[in-house]
Protein backbone atom coordinates (compact mmCIF):
# COMPACT_ATOMS: atom_id res chain seq x y z
CA UNK A 1 0.00 0.00 0.00
CA UNK A 2 2.82 2.36 0.77
CA UNK A 3 4.30 1.81 -2.63
CA UNK A 4 0.99 2.67 -4.35
CA UNK A 5 0.84 6.27 -3.13
CA UNK A 6 3.64 7.64 -5.31
CA UNK A 7 2.14 5.97 -8.32
CA UNK A 8 -1.27 7.63 -7.69
CA UNK A 9 0.32 11.06 -7.30
CA UNK A 10 2.13 10.62 -10.56
CA UNK A 11 -1.13 9.80 -12.32
CA UNK A 12 -2.80 12.89 -10.85
CA UNK A 13 0.05 15.10 -12.02
CA UNK A 14 -0.19 13.61 -15.48
CA UNK A 15 -3.96 14.22 -15.62
CA UNK A 16 -3.50 17.84 -14.48
CA UNK A 17 -0.83 18.41 -17.10
CA UNK A 18 -3.10 16.99 -19.79
CA UNK A 19 -6.07 19.17 -18.62
CA UNK A 20 -3.86 22.25 -18.67
CA UNK A 21 -2.83 21.59 -22.22
CA UNK A 22 -6.49 21.12 -23.30
CA UNK A 23 -7.56 24.34 -21.49
CA UNK A 24 -4.85 26.39 -23.14
CA UNK A 25 -5.81 24.96 -26.52
CA UNK A 26 -9.47 25.81 -25.89
CA UNK A 27 -8.61 29.37 -24.86
CA UNK A 28 -6.44 29.86 -27.91
CA UNK A 29 -9.24 28.59 -30.13
CA UNK A 30 -11.81 30.96 -28.54
CA UNK A 31 -9.50 33.94 -28.87
CA UNK A 32 -8.82 33.07 -32.49
CA UNK A 33 -12.57 33.02 -33.20
CA UNK A 34 -13.49 36.14 -31.19
CA UNK A 35 -10.81 38.50 -32.54
CA UNK A 36 -12.13 38.52 -36.17
CA UNK A 37 -15.68 38.79 -34.88
CA UNK A 38 -14.81 41.80 -32.73
CA UNK A 39 -13.08 43.45 -35.69
CA UNK A 40 -16.19 42.90 -37.83
CA UNK A 41 -18.42 44.40 -35.13
CA UNK A 42 -16.17 47.42 -34.86
CA UNK A 43 -16.38 47.92 -38.64
CA UNK A 44 -20.18 47.83 -38.50
CA UNK A 45 -20.18 51.04 -36.47
CA UNK A 46 -18.11 52.96 -39.01
CA UNK A 47 -19.35 54.80 -42.14
CA UNK A 48 -18.60 53.19 -45.48
CA UNK A 49 -15.67 54.53 -47.42
CA UNK A 50 -17.06 56.89 -50.14
CA UNK A 51 -14.25 55.95 -52.51
CA UNK A 52 -15.08 52.31 -52.11
CA UNK A 53 -18.79 52.97 -52.71
CA UNK A 54 -18.03 54.99 -55.81
CA UNK A 55 -15.76 52.25 -57.11
CA UNK A 56 -18.41 49.62 -56.43
CA UNK A 57 -21.09 51.72 -58.07
CA UNK A 58 -18.96 52.30 -61.14
CA UNK A 59 -18.13 48.62 -61.31
CA UNK A 60 -21.81 47.70 -61.12
CA UNK A 61 -22.63 50.13 -63.89
CA UNK A 62 -19.90 48.63 -66.04
CA UNK A 63 -21.19 45.13 -65.37
CA UNK A 64 -24.75 46.11 -66.27
CA UNK A 65 -23.53 47.94 -69.35
CA UNK A 66 -21.73 44.83 -70.53
CA UNK A 67 -24.65 42.52 -69.84
CA UNK A 68 -27.54 44.81 -70.84
CA UNK A 69 -26.45 48.06 -72.55
CA UNK A 70 -30.05 49.05 -73.45
CA UNK A 71 -30.93 49.29 -69.77
CA UNK A 72 -28.33 52.03 -69.23
CA UNK A 73 -29.23 53.89 -72.42
CA UNK A 74 -32.93 53.99 -71.59
CA UNK A 75 -32.52 55.46 -68.10
CA UNK A 76 -29.50 57.72 -68.29
CA UNK A 77 -31.35 61.07 -68.03
CA UNK A 78 -33.82 62.61 -65.65
CA UNK A 79 -36.28 63.20 -68.47
CA UNK A 80 -36.21 59.50 -69.35
CA UNK A 81 -37.03 58.51 -65.79
CA UNK A 82 -39.46 61.32 -65.08
CA UNK A 83 -41.12 62.37 -68.36
CA UNK A 84 -43.09 65.60 -68.33
CA UNK A 85 -46.86 64.99 -68.05
CA UNK A 86 -48.68 65.33 -71.33
CA UNK A 87 -51.99 67.15 -71.83
CA UNK A 88 -53.79 63.87 -72.49
CA UNK A 89 -52.73 62.62 -69.05
CA UNK A 90 -54.34 65.55 -67.27
CA UNK A 91 -57.24 65.90 -69.68
CA UNK A 92 -58.52 62.45 -70.72
CA UNK A 93 -60.26 61.90 -73.99
CA UNK A 94 -63.99 61.25 -74.21
CA UNK A 95 -63.44 57.49 -74.15
CA UNK A 96 -61.45 57.64 -70.92
CA UNK A 97 -62.34 58.59 -67.38
CA UNK A 98 -63.17 62.27 -66.97
CA UNK A 99 -61.97 62.44 -63.38
CA UNK A 100 -58.37 63.31 -62.69
CA UNK A 101 -56.25 61.27 -60.32
CA UNK A 102 -54.92 63.18 -57.32
CA UNK A 103 -52.24 62.25 -54.80
CA UNK A 104 -54.97 61.62 -52.25
CA UNK A 105 -56.23 58.78 -54.44
CA UNK A 106 -53.09 56.80 -53.64
CA UNK A 107 -53.04 57.37 -49.86
CA UNK A 108 -54.46 54.72 -47.50
CA UNK A 109 -58.18 55.08 -47.01
CA UNK A 110 -59.73 54.76 -43.61
CA UNK A 111 -62.99 52.95 -43.35
CA UNK A 112 -65.78 55.50 -43.04
CA UNK A 113 -69.40 54.64 -42.72
CA UNK A 114 -71.40 55.73 -45.75
CA UNK A 115 -73.92 58.48 -45.13
CA UNK A 116 -76.57 59.94 -47.42
CA UNK A 117 -75.84 63.33 -49.01
CA UNK A 118 -78.35 65.35 -46.98
CA UNK A 119 -79.24 62.94 -44.21
CA UNK A 120 -79.24 64.75 -40.84
CA UNK A 121 -77.46 63.34 -37.82
CA UNK A 122 -77.51 64.23 -34.13
CA UNK A 123 -74.61 65.57 -32.11
CA UNK A 124 -74.98 64.25 -28.56
CA UNK A 125 -78.14 65.73 -27.09
CA UNK A 126 -77.20 69.40 -27.20
CA UNK A 127 -78.03 70.22 -30.85
CA UNK A 128 -81.25 69.09 -32.53
CA UNK A 129 -80.12 68.36 -36.13
CA UNK A 130 -76.92 69.14 -38.04
CA UNK A 131 -76.98 68.78 -41.85
CA UNK A 132 -74.44 66.48 -43.40
CA UNK A 133 -71.55 68.40 -44.97
CA UNK A 134 -70.33 67.23 -48.38
CA UNK A 135 -66.61 66.39 -48.30
CA UNK A 136 -64.38 68.84 -50.24
CA UNK A 137 -63.29 67.99 -53.77
CA UNK A 138 -60.71 69.22 -56.24
CA UNK A 139 -61.28 71.42 -59.28
CA UNK A 140 -62.45 69.40 -62.28
CA UNK A 141 -60.99 70.51 -65.63
CA UNK A 142 -61.40 68.21 -68.60
CA UNK A 143 -62.15 67.97 -72.30
CA UNK A 144 -65.43 66.53 -73.53
CA UNK A 145 -66.31 65.79 -77.13
CA UNK A 146 -69.77 67.13 -78.05
CA UNK A 147 -71.75 66.55 -81.23
CA UNK A 148 -73.25 70.04 -80.99
CA UNK A 149 -69.91 71.85 -80.67
CA UNK A 150 -68.83 74.25 -83.41
CA UNK A 151 -67.02 71.71 -85.57
CA UNK A 152 -67.01 69.65 -87.68
CA UNK A 153 -69.44 71.70 -89.78
CA UNK A 154 -70.72 70.79 -93.24
CA UNK A 155 -73.37 73.50 -93.71
CA UNK A 156 -73.35 76.85 -95.46
CA UNK A 157 -71.60 80.08 -94.62
CA UNK A 158 -74.45 82.56 -93.99
CA UNK A 159 -72.29 85.45 -95.19
CA UNK A 160 -72.27 84.03 -98.72
CA UNK A 161 -74.93 81.31 -98.51
CA UNK A 162 -72.34 79.02 -100.09
CA UNK A 163 -70.95 75.77 -98.64
CA UNK A 164 -68.52 76.46 -95.83
CA UNK A 165 -66.10 73.80 -97.12
CA UNK A 166 -65.57 75.43 -100.51
CA UNK A 167 -62.17 73.97 -101.46
CA UNK A 168 -61.26 70.40 -102.37
CA UNK A 169 -58.03 68.64 -103.22
CA UNK A 170 -58.42 64.96 -103.87
CA UNK A 171 -60.32 63.56 -100.92
CA UNK A 172 -59.55 66.57 -98.73
CA UNK A 173 -61.99 69.40 -98.21
CA UNK A 174 -61.19 72.82 -96.88
CA UNK A 175 -62.30 76.40 -96.40
CA UNK A 176 -60.82 79.49 -97.98
CA UNK A 177 -60.88 82.22 -95.33
CA UNK A 178 -61.51 85.92 -95.88
CA UNK A 179 -57.74 86.45 -96.02
CA UNK A 180 -57.51 84.00 -98.91
CA UNK A 181 -55.72 81.31 -96.94
CA UNK A 182 -56.99 77.74 -97.21
CA UNK A 183 -57.55 75.72 -94.04
CA UNK A 184 -58.25 72.00 -94.36
CA UNK A 185 -61.17 70.40 -92.60
CA UNK A 186 -59.20 67.49 -91.12
CA UNK A 187 -56.63 69.83 -89.55
CA UNK A 188 -58.63 72.93 -88.58
CA UNK A 189 -62.34 72.14 -88.44
CA UNK A 190 -62.60 68.63 -86.97
CA UNK A 191 -62.07 69.16 -83.22
CA UNK A 192 -65.40 68.76 -81.39
CA UNK A 193 -63.98 69.02 -77.89
CA UNK A 194 -65.12 71.45 -75.21
CA UNK A 195 -63.07 72.56 -72.24
CA UNK A 196 -65.19 72.06 -69.10
CA UNK A 197 -64.18 73.51 -65.75
CA UNK A 198 -66.06 72.94 -62.48
CA UNK A 199 -64.47 74.73 -59.49
CA UNK A 200 -64.04 72.76 -56.29
CA UNK A 201 -66.47 75.06 -54.48
CA UNK A 202 -69.27 74.75 -57.05
CA UNK A 203 -72.54 73.74 -55.41
CA UNK A 204 -75.54 72.85 -57.55
CA UNK A 205 -77.85 73.44 -54.59
CA UNK A 206 -77.02 77.15 -54.79
CA UNK A 207 -77.88 79.60 -57.59
CA UNK A 208 -75.19 79.51 -60.26
CA UNK A 209 -74.23 80.58 -63.76
CA UNK A 210 -72.60 78.96 -66.80
CA UNK A 211 -69.84 80.98 -68.51
CA UNK A 212 -69.43 80.17 -72.22
CA UNK A 213 -66.07 81.36 -73.57
CA UNK A 214 -65.44 81.79 -77.30
CA UNK A 215 -61.68 82.08 -77.86
CA UNK A 216 -60.08 84.16 -80.57
CA UNK A 217 -58.03 83.32 -83.64
CA UNK A 218 -54.92 81.18 -83.53
CA UNK A 219 -55.84 79.37 -80.32
CA UNK A 220 -56.16 75.92 -78.83
CA UNK A 221 -57.99 74.99 -75.66
CA UNK A 222 -55.04 73.63 -73.73
CA UNK A 223 -52.22 75.93 -74.85
CA UNK A 224 -54.16 79.21 -74.87
CA UNK A 225 -57.50 79.07 -73.05
CA UNK A 226 -56.22 77.02 -70.14
CA UNK A 227 -52.50 77.79 -69.87
CA UNK A 228 -51.98 81.28 -71.32
CA UNK A 229 -55.31 83.03 -70.80
CA UNK A 230 -55.95 81.26 -67.48
CA UNK A 231 -59.71 81.23 -68.03
CA UNK A 232 -60.43 78.25 -65.72
CA UNK A 233 -58.27 79.77 -63.00
CA UNK A 234 -60.09 83.11 -63.25
CA UNK A 235 -63.43 81.33 -62.85
CA UNK A 236 -62.22 79.57 -59.71
CA UNK A 237 -60.49 82.62 -58.22
CA UNK A 238 -63.64 84.73 -58.56
CA UNK A 239 -65.37 82.62 -55.90
CA UNK A 240 -68.55 82.65 -57.99
CA UNK A 241 -70.76 79.60 -58.20
CA UNK A 242 -69.92 79.31 -61.89
CA UNK A 243 -68.99 76.65 -64.46
CA UNK A 244 -66.97 77.16 -67.64
CA UNK A 245 -67.67 75.82 -71.13
CA UNK A 246 -65.17 76.70 -73.87
CA UNK A 247 -65.74 75.03 -77.26
CA UNK A 248 -62.82 74.61 -79.63
CA UNK A 249 -63.32 76.87 -82.63
CA UNK A 250 -60.97 76.84 -85.65
CA UNK A 251 -57.82 75.13 -84.40
CA UNK A 252 -54.83 77.48 -84.26
CA UNK A 253 -56.04 79.39 -87.33
CA UNK A 254 -56.68 83.01 -88.28
CA UNK A 255 -60.37 82.30 -88.78
CA UNK A 256 -63.45 83.36 -86.79
CA UNK A 257 -65.95 80.96 -88.37
CA UNK A 258 -68.83 80.05 -86.06
CA UNK A 259 -69.58 76.58 -87.41
CA UNK A 260 -72.71 75.06 -85.93
CA UNK A 261 -73.36 78.26 -83.98
CA UNK A 262 -74.33 79.81 -87.30
CA UNK A 263 -77.36 77.52 -87.42
CA UNK A 264 -80.74 78.48 -85.92
CA UNK A 265 -81.00 76.77 -82.52
CA UNK A 266 -77.34 75.76 -82.62
CA UNK A 267 -76.46 77.41 -79.32
CA UNK A 268 -79.53 75.89 -77.66
CA UNK A 269 -78.54 72.40 -78.77
CA UNK A 270 -75.03 73.00 -77.45
CA UNK A 271 -76.30 74.03 -74.02
CA UNK A 272 -78.74 71.10 -73.85
CA UNK A 273 -76.00 68.59 -74.59
CA UNK A 274 -73.69 70.35 -72.13
CA UNK A 275 -76.29 69.91 -69.38
CA UNK A 276 -76.16 66.14 -69.75
CA UNK A 277 -72.36 66.09 -69.65
CA UNK A 278 -72.25 68.39 -66.62
CA UNK A 279 -74.73 66.21 -64.76
CA UNK A 280 -72.58 63.15 -65.33
CA UNK A 281 -69.31 64.90 -64.52
CA UNK A 282 -70.60 66.28 -61.24
CA UNK A 283 -71.88 62.85 -60.20
CA UNK A 284 -75.65 63.41 -60.30
CA UNK A 285 -77.36 62.34 -63.56
CA UNK A 286 -80.62 63.78 -62.25
CA UNK A 287 -79.18 67.30 -62.19
CA UNK A 288 -79.30 67.77 -65.99
CA UNK A 289 -82.51 69.76 -65.72
CA UNK A 290 -80.92 72.20 -63.27
CA UNK A 291 -77.99 72.79 -65.63
CA UNK A 292 -80.40 73.17 -68.57
CA UNK A 293 -82.12 76.10 -66.81
CA UNK A 294 -79.05 77.84 -65.41
CA UNK A 295 -78.37 81.44 -66.53
CA UNK A 296 -75.62 82.00 -69.10
CA UNK A 297 -72.90 84.62 -69.53
CA UNK A 298 -71.20 84.65 -72.95
CA UNK A 299 -67.62 85.91 -73.19
CA UNK A 300 -66.17 86.57 -76.66
CA UNK A 301 -62.51 87.44 -77.11
CA UNK A 302 -61.20 88.86 -80.40
CA UNK A 303 -62.45 86.59 -83.20
CA UNK A 304 -64.91 85.08 -80.72
CA UNK A 305 -67.24 87.99 -81.57
CA UNK A 306 -68.72 86.04 -84.49
CA UNK A 307 -70.03 82.95 -82.63
CA UNK A 308 -71.13 85.30 -79.82
CA UNK A 309 -73.19 87.49 -82.17
CA UNK A 310 -74.83 84.56 -83.97
CA UNK A 311 -75.59 82.75 -80.71
CA UNK A 312 -77.44 85.86 -79.52
CA UNK A 313 -79.24 86.31 -82.83
CA UNK A 314 -80.32 82.77 -83.81
CA UNK A 315 -79.16 80.58 -80.90
CA UNK A 316 -82.68 79.97 -79.62
CA UNK A 317 -82.08 80.68 -75.92
CA UNK A 318 -81.14 84.36 -75.81
CA UNK A 319 -83.47 84.83 -72.82
CA UNK A 320 -81.20 82.62 -70.72
CA UNK A 321 -78.25 84.84 -71.54
CA UNK A 322 -77.97 87.29 -68.63
CA UNK A 323 -74.69 88.88 -69.66
CA UNK A 324 -72.36 89.44 -72.63
CA UNK A 325 -68.68 90.36 -72.29
CA UNK A 326 -66.61 91.32 -75.35
CA UNK A 327 -62.84 91.58 -74.94
CA UNK A 328 -61.43 93.68 -77.80
CA UNK A 329 -63.92 91.89 -80.00
CA UNK A 330 -66.23 94.33 -81.81
CA UNK A 331 -64.98 93.66 -85.32
CA UNK A 332 -68.48 93.63 -86.79
CA UNK A 333 -72.07 92.40 -86.29
CA UNK A 334 -72.96 95.62 -84.38
CA UNK A 335 -76.61 95.29 -85.33
CA UNK A 336 -76.86 91.88 -83.63
CA UNK A 337 -75.30 93.17 -80.41
CA UNK A 338 -77.47 96.30 -80.42
CA UNK A 339 -80.63 94.23 -81.00
CA UNK A 340 -79.88 91.92 -78.06
CA UNK A 341 -79.09 94.85 -75.74
CA UNK A 342 -82.31 96.63 -76.67
CA UNK A 343 -84.54 93.57 -76.18
CA UNK A 344 -82.85 92.21 -73.03
CA UNK A 345 -82.77 95.03 -70.54
CA UNK A 346 -82.56 92.58 -67.60
CA UNK A 347 -79.08 91.52 -68.69
CA UNK A 348 -75.78 93.39 -68.85
CA UNK A 349 -73.34 94.14 -71.66
CA UNK A 350 -69.63 94.94 -71.34
CA UNK A 351 -67.23 95.76 -74.18
CA UNK A 352 -63.62 96.56 -73.41
CA UNK A 353 -61.47 97.65 -76.33
CA UNK A 354 -58.08 98.80 -77.60
CA UNK A 355 -57.31 101.03 -80.56
CA UNK A 356 -57.87 98.08 -82.90
CA UNK A 357 -61.63 98.05 -82.31
CA UNK A 358 -62.14 101.59 -80.97
CA UNK A 359 -63.92 102.86 -84.11
CA UNK A 360 -66.52 100.08 -84.11
CA UNK A 361 -67.06 100.28 -80.35
CA UNK A 362 -67.78 103.99 -80.64
CA UNK A 363 -70.16 103.28 -83.52
CA UNK A 364 -72.01 100.74 -81.36
CA UNK A 365 -72.21 103.26 -78.49
CA UNK A 366 -73.75 105.79 -80.87
CA UNK A 367 -76.33 103.26 -82.09
CA UNK A 368 -77.38 102.50 -78.50
CA UNK A 369 -77.65 106.14 -77.47
CA UNK A 370 -79.86 106.81 -80.47
CA UNK A 371 -82.15 104.08 -79.10
CA UNK A 372 -82.30 105.90 -75.76
CA UNK A 373 -80.07 103.37 -73.95
CA UNK A 374 -77.66 104.94 -71.46
CA UNK A 375 -74.01 103.91 -71.75
CA UNK A 376 -71.34 103.98 -69.06
CA UNK A 377 -67.64 104.22 -69.87
CA UNK A 378 -66.03 102.81 -66.73
CA UNK A 379 -66.05 99.58 -64.72
CA UNK A 380 -65.93 101.13 -61.27
CA UNK A 381 -69.31 99.98 -59.99
CA UNK A 382 -71.16 96.68 -59.75
CA UNK A 383 -72.93 95.23 -62.76
CA UNK A 384 -76.69 95.61 -62.53
CA UNK A 385 -79.59 94.52 -64.73
CA UNK A 386 -79.52 96.78 -67.78
CA UNK A 387 -75.89 97.86 -67.35
CA UNK A 388 -74.18 98.76 -70.65
CA UNK A 389 -70.48 99.47 -70.20
CA UNK A 390 -67.74 100.38 -72.70
CA UNK A 391 -64.17 100.58 -71.39
CA UNK A 392 -61.24 101.88 -73.43
CA UNK A 393 -57.81 100.60 -72.41
CA UNK A 394 -54.49 102.34 -72.95
CA UNK A 395 -51.69 101.72 -75.42
CA UNK A 396 -49.69 99.69 -72.91
CA UNK A 397 -52.30 96.91 -73.02
CA UNK A 398 -51.69 94.38 -75.79
CA UNK A 399 -54.35 92.50 -77.69
CA UNK A 400 -52.63 89.15 -77.20
CA UNK A 401 -52.74 89.42 -73.39
CA UNK A 402 -56.20 90.96 -73.22
CA UNK A 403 -57.87 88.02 -71.49
CA UNK A 404 -55.50 88.36 -68.53
CA UNK A 405 -54.93 92.12 -68.62
CA UNK A 406 -57.51 94.60 -69.88
CA UNK A 407 -59.00 97.35 -67.66
CA UNK A 408 -57.63 95.26 -64.80
CA UNK A 409 -55.75 92.05 -64.30
CA UNK A 410 -57.92 88.96 -64.76
CA UNK A 411 -60.93 90.78 -66.29
CA UNK A 412 -63.17 87.68 -66.27
CA UNK A 413 -62.61 87.33 -62.55
CA UNK A 414 -63.46 91.02 -62.12
CA UNK A 415 -66.74 90.65 -64.05
CA UNK A 416 -67.86 87.73 -61.89
CA UNK A 417 -66.90 89.55 -58.68
CA UNK A 418 -68.95 92.58 -59.78
CA UNK A 419 -71.88 90.28 -60.54
CA UNK A 420 -71.67 89.00 -56.97
CA UNK A 421 -71.90 92.59 -55.73
CA UNK A 422 -75.27 93.11 -57.40
CA UNK A 423 -77.93 93.85 -54.73
CA UNK A 424 -80.06 90.82 -53.90
CA UNK A 425 -78.22 88.86 -56.61
CA UNK A 426 -81.02 89.86 -58.98
CA UNK A 427 -78.81 89.87 -62.05
CA UNK A 428 -77.92 86.23 -62.66
CA UNK A 429 -78.74 84.63 -59.31
CA UNK A 430 -75.04 84.00 -58.83
CA UNK A 431 -74.04 83.06 -55.29
CA UNK A 432 -70.59 82.85 -53.77
CA UNK A 433 -69.80 79.72 -51.79
CA UNK A 434 -66.81 81.21 -50.02
Describe what this molecule looks like in 3D.
The protein is an alpha/beta fold. It is 36% helix and 16% strand. The chain contains 14 helices and 15 strands. It has helices at 4-44, 50-67, 69-73, 78-81, 87-90, 185-188, 221-228, 231-237, 266-281, 288-292, 305-314, 334-343, 358-370, 411-420, and strands at residues 121-123, 127-130, 140-145, 156-157, 162-163, 167-169, 172-176, 182-184, 193-198, 209-214, 242-247, 296-301, 321-327, 348-353, 388-392. Strands 3-9-11-10-12-13-14-15 form an 8-stranded mixed β-sheet, sandwiched between helices. A 3-stranded antiparallel β-sheet has the order 6-7-8. Helix 11 (305-314) packs across helix 12 and helix 12 runs parallel beside helix 13 (358-370). The longest helix has 41 residues, at 4-44. The radius of gyration is 38 Å and the shape is globular. The chain starts with a helix and ends in a 14-residue tail after the last helix. 33% of the residues are buried.
Amino acid sequence: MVGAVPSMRADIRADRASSGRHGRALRVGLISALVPLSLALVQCGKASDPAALAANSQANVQVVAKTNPQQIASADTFEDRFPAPQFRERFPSASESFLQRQMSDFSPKRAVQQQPEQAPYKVASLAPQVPYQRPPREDLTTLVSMKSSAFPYFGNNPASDAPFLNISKGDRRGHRSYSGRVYWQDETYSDSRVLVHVPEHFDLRKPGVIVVFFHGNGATLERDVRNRQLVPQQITDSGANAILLAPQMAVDAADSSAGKFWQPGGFKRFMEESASHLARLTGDPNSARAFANMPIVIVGYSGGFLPTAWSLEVGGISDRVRGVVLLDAVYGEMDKFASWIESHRSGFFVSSYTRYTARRDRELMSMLRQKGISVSEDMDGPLRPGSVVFVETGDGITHRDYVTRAWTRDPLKDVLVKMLATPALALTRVASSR
